[in-house]
Structures are given as C-alpha cells and as structure tokens.
Amino acid sequence: QVRLVESGGSLVQAGGSLRLSCAASGRIFSINAMGWYRQAPGKQRELVATITDGGSTNYADSVKGLFTISRDNGKMTPYLQMNSLKPEDTAVYYCWSRDSSYNYWGQGTQVTVSS
C-alpha cells in the first residue's frame, strides 16, 4: 500500500503561482509513475501531469508551458509548479501514483484562482 498526502493548495489571484507537493509513504519502492489530476466542480477528474520513474512526462494540453512536474526520486515525491494560474484552474488537485498492480490517490488539495 502507498499513502499519499498533498500540500500546497491555496487561494491565489489570477496570474499567480503555486507549488503543490505530495508526500508518499508505505511501499514507495514499488512506484513506477506519479503525477497530478484535478477535478473542478461538476466536472470529471482529469489528468494534469504525470512523470514516470524514468523521467518521461505527460501534460494536459491546457497546462503545457504553464505547469511543470518534477519529482524527488529518493522520496518518490512529485511536485507541481503552476504558473500563470487562471480561474479555470480552480479545482481539487489529487496526487496519484501507481505500481504494477494498483493506482493510489491522495485526499486532494484545493486550488482556487480568483479573477
């Protein structure tokens, strides 16, 4: 089992920046990919960015060039640097990771971007 705890969500004005972190514990040695998803009110959860243990990244088109995912391999911790935030980025952001058998999710952290 892997436990994920997000931090860094906040209220920010449009154009501002935030950095999300995710602390992983448990069987972290088994993780082969990690990343971030988000869910806005009334919408489905969507991929924001992912990174594999090999360093390959994948971004939603809406955040390319604005958000950057990175990781601490020793702690298997993903970070999400979010720049030039827009009101449409308002959502609960979930940390995600996977191993060969399961997907794991954090409880989420709220990001609110005011116009």
Word description of this protein:
A hairpin with a 4-residue loop joins strand 5 and strand 6. The chain is built from no helices and eleven strands. 0% of the residues lie in helices and 56% in strands. Strands 2, 4, 5, 6, 9, 10 and 11 form a seven-stranded mixed beta sheet that branches. Strands 1-3-8-7 form a four-stranded antiparallel beta sheet, with no helix packed on it. The protein is mostly beta strands and 115 residues long.
Give me the secondary-structure topology.
Elements (H helix, E strand, L loop, with lengths): L1 E6 L3 E3 L4 E9 L6 E7 L6 E7 L4 E3 L7 E6 L4 E6 L8 E8 L4 E3 L3 E6 L1
Parallel strand pairs: 2-11
Antiparallel strand pairs: 1-3, 3-8, 4-5, 4-9, 5-6, 7-8, 9-10, 9-11
Please sum up the structure shown.
Helices cover 0% and strands 56% of the residues.
The total of helices stands at 0
Low-confidence stretches: none
Envelope shape: globular
| Helix-strand category | mainly beta
- The separation of the N and C termini measures 40 Å
Give the ordered list of helices and strands.
EEEEEEEEEEE
Number of strands: 11
Computed CA radius of gyration, to the nearest angstrom: 13 Å
Major sheet: size, sense and barrel closure? 7 strands, mixed
In helices, the fraction of residues equals under 10%
